[in-house]
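Protocol check, entry for the methods section draft. Step 1: assemble the input record (protein sequence plus ligand SMILES). Step 2: submit for complex structure prediction. Step 3: store the structure tokens unaltered in the notebook. Ligand used here: zinc ion. Step 1 record:
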Amino acid sequence: MIDMKTEKRLEKLLDITGESICLNCLGRKFSDIIPGPGNRKRAETLIKTFKLKKSSNKCKICKGILEDLEKTADYVEEKIKKLNLEFSTLLVGSRLPEELLSTDENINNHLNIEVESIKKEINRELGKILKERFNCKVDFKNPDIIVKVDFRTLEPQVWVQINPLFIEGRYKKLIRGIPQTKWPCRKCKGQGCPRCNFTGKMYPTSVEELVAEPVLKATQGSGSKFHGAGREDIDVRMLGKGRPFVLEIKEPKKRKINLKEIADEINKFAKGKIEVLNLKFSTRNRKVEIKTSSPYKIYRAKVKLKDEIEPSALEKLKSLNLIKQRTPKRVSHRRADKIRKRKVIDIKWNIIDSKTLELILKTEGGLYIKELISGDDGRTKPSISEILNTPAECIELDVLEVG
Ligand SMILES: [Zn+2]
Ligand SMILES: [Zn+2]
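Step 3, stored output:
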């Protein structure tokens, strides 16, 4: 493996750098032909084979950055300790002076070689040191924190990006009158005004706030976002096994929280308004999955009819199948105007009195139930009102199951 090619390359490299080259940079330029592990090991092999003297000058390629990484790690450690962070995975990213990058690349071009870039080596080597110091792992896909080091200044500048924490579970909404997410006051847009009693909100609380507050306290996060698998209206309860959601906590300082205890605390704090179940740690990917999922739903709807109805006429409800639904009037100010096609999968009914029905409906996700009942002035076709040939109104609605 040590051949003429190696010797030629070494000669040229020592010539270009005036023999001022550190072990990492020396080894790196042979990473394609000399076995490691690691560039320092490669350099040692070269030094032994060719009886070289180790250079004590500052490296011409990395300007000493690679030799000083322990010191850089001290800066990082100081920063992390100041933030009092809890994490188990990290990733290192760095910014290097343009000049340094081009020197490294020019040498590769000159030697006509393709070897690891200096940036990759710095990130990896600093990652190794930090991994040891913090007893954590390097994670390229979903790190808890990203340590960013800018080497373009005299002393390296360190930033720590704290990635969000994701927690998933299901929620039940036991009473009517609570929105799923925090709803800023329409008049003051959250500033606080007489209309909202200076709360900045349309409603005193929301599922989001009731779930997020205890979690924010425990994680010391800077904010939160609530992602539900769809949502029910404010006046609709969410019963059964609840609706899936993912809670995103921004910049959490603590991650090792006890979810069982948190769930108990949320349920105590929300005193019969809402309840959470099956809390577990989750990922960004699950957030996307849950947000875009459109599972089937089972509803219980109480329906008021304008005219009395013969029980036998209700058999016609069984014909409900494919529904063409134009965006309802009541949401048209915030939803695109289009026609959706959704199916009613199953329908059962109980007669409460000659003008009141209780319906149990199983439908595809995304069907507006109140409009399925009323017909929304012909925007939803067919509708229960149309089929029964009398105006019909949904006066109470519960979600019993989200598939
Ligand atoms: Zn170097
Ligand atoms: Zn207001």
